[in-house]
Amino acid sequence: xxxxxxxxxxxxxxxxxxxxxxxxxxxxxxxxxxxxxxxxxxxxxxxxxxxxxxxxxxxxxxxxxxxxxxxxxxxxxxxxxxxxxxxxxxxxxxxxxxxxxxxxxxxxxxxxxxxxxxxxxxxxxxxxxxxxxxxxxxxxxxxxxxxxxxxxxxxxxxxxxxxxxxxxxxxxxxxxxxxxxxxxxxxxxxxxxxx
Length: 195
Prior knowledge:
The protein is mainly alpha-helical. The protein has helices at 2-8, 47-50, 63-66, 74-90, 102-111, 125-132, 144-152, 169-192, and strands at 21-25, 31-35. The longest helix is centred in the last third of the chain and has 24 residues, at 169-192.
């Protein structure tokens, strides 16, 4: 949802990786993902020229940014979301990067060769992840709603988060005032009645 709102504001995140997502559980135990930052939050053809490799981990940087040739678009953020989905399914990143030189990781990203997730137990979700991380932007989902719709067709709907009840202080003060008035009236009545 947050990435979609960024796109509606003509901004791109471009730095989606596991470190930028926190999973919390709501009050009924449903896991909810929270984006911890807004990434680069920029849009336009100048992104490849302004990009610095320190902005994102090489294994999660889209090929169009790595090559510096663009085009950088909402499909670039779909790539980041697809990388997260791939890693959740496979249990490891599409491109190993621990103890690897950045140049080797960048070469892997540019080649676009990654192992399948190995998840034959799921309908077509692994194929959705693989389509989202294909190296050619035009072969990916072009935007977040397309990606989300493809996933939604395979998964049960997620219930909306229940909001905690808010305290209506006005009602509480009215009730307390009424109780106080009743107790005063009863107190006065008892004081007036002879024993």
